[in-house]
Specification:
This protein is mostly helical. It is about 80% helix and about 0% strand. It is built from 16 helices and no strands. It has helices spanning about 5-25, 30-35, 40-65, 75-90, 95-120, 125-155, 165-185, 185-190, 205-240, 245-270, 275-285, 285-290, 295-310, 315-325, 330-360, 360-370. Helix 3 runs parallel beside helix 5 and helix 11 crosses helix 14. The model is unreliable at about 190-195 and about 385-390 (pLDDT under 50).
Length: about 400
């Protein structure tokens, strides 16, 4: 397939919209905690339900669409998110919030595997760049969400969240057009013809080992990110006596750094190899993460920006590396890795919430500071032959 900047831009923009709505949920945790009198463990359960819904369904959807691609499934997935946003805005009970979080997770489960596949189709062989460009849209959305929560949702209350369903409607329009383009690609016009895949030169055992190592690295990255997504505002409020709005602005700085860092990982991986990017991205965070719990507010701000910039470059490199380990299974691999990332983040949020209830929110960041040490596993990642340009 030829490179299509229009389709990549549409996918990245819709990823921004999707993850903006996703990020609103943890951004309003302080408000939900006060409104419904929730514990940290109950806050963690909201994240667990949201992320688990996405994680369990994404691999299933990825495997199914590898065999039977669905050109308009992206627009349908955004419709689930729309329903979740409406319910989150008008839900009168904690139970309603739980259901809303599940619907938003379902929308994400449908969106990510197929959008990752379409981004690869539109890459023109620049797979790392395409995955990073697609991913940076999501990270920008995650960064903007806390700001919108601080300056729009918190002042006007829970019901103002329902207005963000209009964002989902806009996304559905763009994704319907993406579906029209997708329907004209060789995935459909070849009528099921077998596409050649590039051999990796690895044995099945080496391939399995590579996938396990990549999942372990993803575990390290997303448990650590979960500590920021769910509890960073509480940490700043507790440790430095910031207001909720001030803490949300600091969260935006971190998530903005994540968005900026994401765009570098894919293109650099195309040039110097994804193995090197992955190793540097996760293990390279360790000195900063170890220093974070002991820093004052000024250094906390700088350290979290550095952590976000470095850590973010790993994900697009990990996804493309895994897709090259198992050629021809783009949807299944995207579903597995996106699903695992969502699931482990949800489970991590629940466990960290329980830890915060039993100890303190500060202890959470002392414990999590050691997670990037798992990045040492990157030294054992296999070396694979580079796929030819334009291969899928």
């Amino acid at each position: 397939m030829k490179f299509s900047a229009r389709i990549l831009a549409s996918l990245s923009f819709c990823h921004l919209l999707n993850d903006l709505m996703q990020s609103l949920l943890p951004s309003i945790y302080p408000m939900l905690k006060q409104t419904f009198g929730l514990s940290f463990a109950q806050i963690g359960l909201i994240t667990l339900v949201n992320q688990t819904t996405a994680s369990l369904l994404q691999p299933v959807i990825g495997v199914y669409t590898d065999r039977r691609p669905l050109p308009y499934s992206l627009a349908a997935g955004m419709a689930f998110t729309l329903v979740g946003m409406m319910l989150l805005g008008f839900g009168p009970t904690y139970g309603a919030v739980i259901v809303a979080s599940a619907m938003i997770g379902l929308g994400s489960a449908v969106f990510h595997p197929e959008s990752s596949r379409v981004a690869r189709l539109a890459s023109g062989g620049r797979h790392g760049f395409a995955q990073a460009f697609f991913q940076v849209g999501g990270n920008l959305g995650s960064a903007v969400g806390p700001l919108l929560a601080a300056f729009f949702v918190l002042p006007y209350g829970q019901r103002s969240i329902a207005w963000f369903s209009l964002t989902a409607l806009l996304g559905m329009v763009f994704l319907w057009n993406v579906g029209n383009w997708y329907k004209q690609t060789s995935v459909f016009t070849s009528s099921g013809a077998i596409r050649a895949v590039h051999p990796t030169g690895l044995s099945p055992g080496q391939t399995r080992k590579g996938l396990i190592l990549l999942l372990a690295l993803l575990f390290s990255k997303y448990i650590y990110l979960a500590s920021f997504g769910s509890y960073y505002t509480f940490y700043l409020i507790d440790r430095f006596n910031l207001t909720v709005r001030g803490a949300q602005v600091h969260l935006f700085l971190f998530l903005g750094a994540v968005a900026a860092g994401t765009i570098f990982g894919g293109p650099i991986g195309d040039r110097i190899g994804r193995r090197r990017v992955i190793l540097w991205s996760i293990l390279g965070v360790l000195p900063f993460s170890l220093a974070l719990p002991y820093a004052n507010l000024f250094w906390t701000r700088l350290l979290t920006i550095a952590i976000g910039l470095i850590l973010a470059s790993a994900f697009s490199a990990i996804i493309v590396f895994a897709q090259e380990l198992v050629p021809g299974r783009v949807g299944a691999i995207a579903g597995l890795f996106f699903g695992f990332a969502f699931g482990i983040a949800g489970l991590g949020a629940a466990v960290l919430g329980e830890l915060a209830d039993r100890t303190s929110i500060t202890v959470v960041y002392h414990v999590c500071s050691f997670l990037p040490a798992i990045g040492v596993l990157g030294f054992w990642l296999p070396r694979i032959e580079k796929p030819v340009a334009g291969s899928q």
